């Protein structure tokens, strides 16, 4: 594990943007799987600014969404809509280079990723309950590849999603499983804020357990963990 402790969120974002940009500059096909949400927001703003100043061919950069929560009566789910707004549209990603994860294609995605050389980078955040991608405590099996979780009105998953999203979820939730993520060449986990200090301590210092799904990431041979000082405060 390569552990980077940044002074603050801005520095964390600069480091994160630099890692993603380095992958983008490879002179070959590059397969990226990037998170959405608040943690990478500034990193994407920095990345958009840097890319606007570079003259580079982006036709060989492909994007694979690693999870998706359907939203009721919406064209796009939570991840797709978030990434379109934060990154895909600002940098002008061609539609054919965006590989949306859906209930229709999730069973084939692992095979398709393997056929194009695997994922070069998976950039993830960390949930306060220890989840990564859509791998939640109580639902995670470390042996799983990409899988779906039914979302039924009134059940625990539905209620949890509705509370988290602030709007009504649709009828499915799909995610890269631990096995899919662990097959990537490079993992980057970004964590900021004092409210994440206790869970990142558990993730890094062990044990590896499905009760804290992200703990499995620490066994990857090439993982970079980027924390701000607030998130790192409880580490030994």
TrEMBL record:
KW Oxidoreductase (keyword) present: no
Gene3D superfamilies per record: 3.40.50.1360
InterPro entries registered for this protein in UniProt: Glc/Gal-6P_isomerase (IPR006148), GlcN6P_deaminase-like (IPR052960), Glucosamine6P_isomerase (IPR004547), Glucosamine6P_isomerase_CS (IPR018321), NagB/RpiA_transferase-like (IPR037171)
Keywords: Carbohydrate metabolism
Stretches assigned to the Glucosamine/galactosamine-6-phosphate isomerase domain: 21-218
CDD domains xref list: GlcN6P_deaminase
Transmembrane segments: none
One family name in Pfam for this protein: Glucosamine_iso
Keyword ATP-binding: no
NCBIfam families: PRK12358.1
Protein name per UniProt: Glucosamine/galactosamine-6-phosphate isomerase domain-containing protein
Phylogenetic lineage: Bacteria, Bacillati, Bacillota, Bacilli, Lactobacillales
């Amino acid at each position: 594990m390569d552990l980077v402790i940044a002074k603050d969120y801005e520095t964390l974002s600069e480091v994160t943007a630099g890692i993603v940009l380095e992958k983008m500059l490879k002179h070959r096909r590059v397969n990226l799987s990037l998170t959405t949400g608040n943690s990478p927001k500034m990193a994407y703003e920095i990345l958009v600014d840097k890319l606007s100043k570079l003259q580079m061919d982006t036709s060989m950069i492909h994007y694979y969404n690693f999870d998706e929560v359907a939203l009721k009566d919406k064209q796009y789910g939570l991840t797709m809509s978030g990434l379109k707004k934060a990154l895909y549209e600002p940098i002008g990603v061609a539609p054919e280079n965006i590989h949306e994860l859906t209930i229709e294609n999730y069973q084939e995605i692992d095979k398709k990723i393997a056929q194009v050389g695997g994922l070069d980078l998976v950039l993830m955040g960390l949930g306060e309950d220890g989840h990564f991608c859509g791998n939640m405590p109580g639902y995670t099996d470390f042996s799983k590849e990409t899988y779906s979780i039914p979302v039924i009105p009134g059940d625990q998953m539905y209620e949890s999603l509705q509370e988290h999203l602030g709007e009504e979820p649709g009828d499915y939730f799909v995610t890269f499983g631990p096995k899919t993520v662990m097959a990537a060449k490079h993992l980057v986990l970004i964590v900021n804020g004092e409210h994440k200090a206790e869970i990142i301590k558990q993730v890094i210092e062990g044990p590896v357990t499905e009760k804290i799904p992200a703990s499995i990431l620490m066994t990857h041979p090439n993982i970079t963990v980027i924390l701000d000082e607030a998130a790192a405060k409880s580490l030994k």
